[in-house]
Amino acid sequence: MNSAELIEKIKILRNQKNAIIMAHYYQTPDIQDIADFIGDSLALAQQAAKTSADIIVLCGVHFMGETAKIICPDKKVLVPDINAGCSLADSCKADEFREFVKQHPDHTVISYVNTSAEVKALTDIVVTSTNAKKIVDMLPQDEKIIFGPDRNLGNYINSVTGRNMLLWNGACHVHEQFSIKDLLLLKEKYPDAIVLAHPECKSVLLKLADVVGSTQALLNYAVKYPEKKYIVATESGILHEMKKRCPETFFVPVPPEVTEGGVGCMCNECKYMRMNTMQKLYECLLNESNEIIVDEKIAREAIKPIKRMLEMSV
Ligand code: 13P
Ligand code: SF4
Question: Could you tell me which of 40, 43, 50, 239 has the fewest CB atoms within 10 Å of its CB?
Fold first, then answer.
């Protein structure tokens, strides 16, 4: 099947089955283009909460499918590649996190959405990078807080809120791997460019950034100031939507353009996100396969901190 036929078949199945295709900004351009809805982690959760579709095809990674399933237990939630995991979610195993929480019983537990359903079930409030600061700011200043699993986002939120949250030592392999050397070279080459960085990046990189924000916040900034140039330190999938919304604007991702030898490593692409393909999207919709199942008992606990997040981020 050529790609035009594949697109046509996906569209027919989507209508026949009353399905919605939702995609994260880190999906490949073809998947972003066919999606009914694209967004960051928060927007995907919010959209799942209000869709009237019978089937949600969540083009993203496993924890995103789980979150949608927990929010919509009566809907069928499919992920094109069920093995699309997340190094950050994997850096926080539920058993270890449970022990950590037990050791600090007087702490409120805040977890980034990039966690398994089991970890969410141990959590008081889920956050995303879009709403983490806002939600932490809403808690009393003297509240003791555990923040997991991303140490870089946690450090960043501590620095902008003046808190001293206890951090879990996890990280995302994509956002931790940006080359500072390449970023400095890019800054030298494009001195008037604005550096956009995701708070999952290391603090040494964030110190070099002009704008730190979630995928959505970085996109919004570029859309607001399309006359500027941008150096982008987050997963490079976002460049597709940035270029679509700002076709005249100059964007350069960190680091591939200037890596020694000119070849460039593709460490700014999340290998898990990229496991989803149009063919897999078609097959999972056709066969209604790769369904996300969440244990009912875990889902009953995990929905509570997700609901708190949705209520606190309106
Ligand atoms: P956001 O979608 O909240 O920006 O998070 C980035 C990310 O790494 C998602 O996996
Ligand atoms: Fe997980 Fe990082 Fe990939 Fe996001 S970019 S899904 S945090 S591994």
Answer: 50
Verify that 107 and 164 share a domain, yes or no.
Answer: yes
Q: What pTM was estimated for this model as a whole?
A: 0.93
Claim to verify: residue 262 and residue 280 sit in the same structural domain: no
pLDDT digits (tens, 9 = 90+) for 217-258: 999 999 999 999 999 999 999 999 999 999 999 999 997 434
pLDDT-derived band at 82 (thresholds 50, 70, 90) equals very high
Number of domains in the chain: 3
Q: At 252, which CATH number?
A: 3.40.50.10800
pLDDT over threshold 60, residue 259 = no
Nearest-ligand number for the alpha carbon of 238: 1
Ligand 2 atom at minimum distance from 89 CA: 1
- How many C-alpha atoms does 258 have within 13 Å on its Cβ side? 18
Residue of 32, 40, 196 to test ligand 1 pocket, by largest number of atoms within 8 Å of CB? 40
What average pLDDT does this structure show over 95-118?
Answer: 97
Q: What is the extent of the structural domain holding 304?
A: 88-171+298-312
Q: Which residues contact 148 (CB under 8 A, 6 or more apart)?
A: 92, 97, 100, 109, 110, 111, 112, 115, 119, 154, 167, 168, 170
